[in-house]
Amino acid sequence: MIEFGHSTHVGLRREHNEDTYYADANLGLWLVADGMGGHEHGEVASALARDTLVREVGKGMALIPAIQLADEEIIRHSTKRSEALPMGTTIAALRITGERDFEVAWVGDSRVYLWNNGLKQLSQDHSYVQELIDQGAITSEQARSHPHRNVVTQALGVTDPQSMRIGSAKGTLAPGM
Hints:
single chain; Phosphatase 2c, domain 1; 177 residues; alpha+beta; two-stranded antiparallel ribbon; 7 strands
């Protein structure tokens, strides 16, 4: 049995929440889609991502191809609008298959953690500061206050589909995780 809770908050700087989430133990799917605050219609992009994943995972599709379809859906919707800016969203999703097997997939800087007597980050941010950390140019501590700490390098609807790098991990859950 999986116990979970969920909530969302507009935050301290914005008046409008562009984020969405989904949680369904029967389907075995949990996700967060963080609409891009600097682009118009981030809430539309995050809702399109959520709806596409729910529909496709409901048909039995794995997360990575479902996320690729969500990206295509957002781009298709975005090209129908007259505004010049694209709409975008990050996404982090968990799918549990069978009794205990899981897959996680993400694009952007929405994170996935595993609880196992402490939190362990499973996802790796697609962000400018993460690239600097990986290059050894800054430390994780410096990244927390870096002026570009909120710049993502990958997002659905924004990143060229040929350049999209969907992060993923798989594992098996044990009691208490």
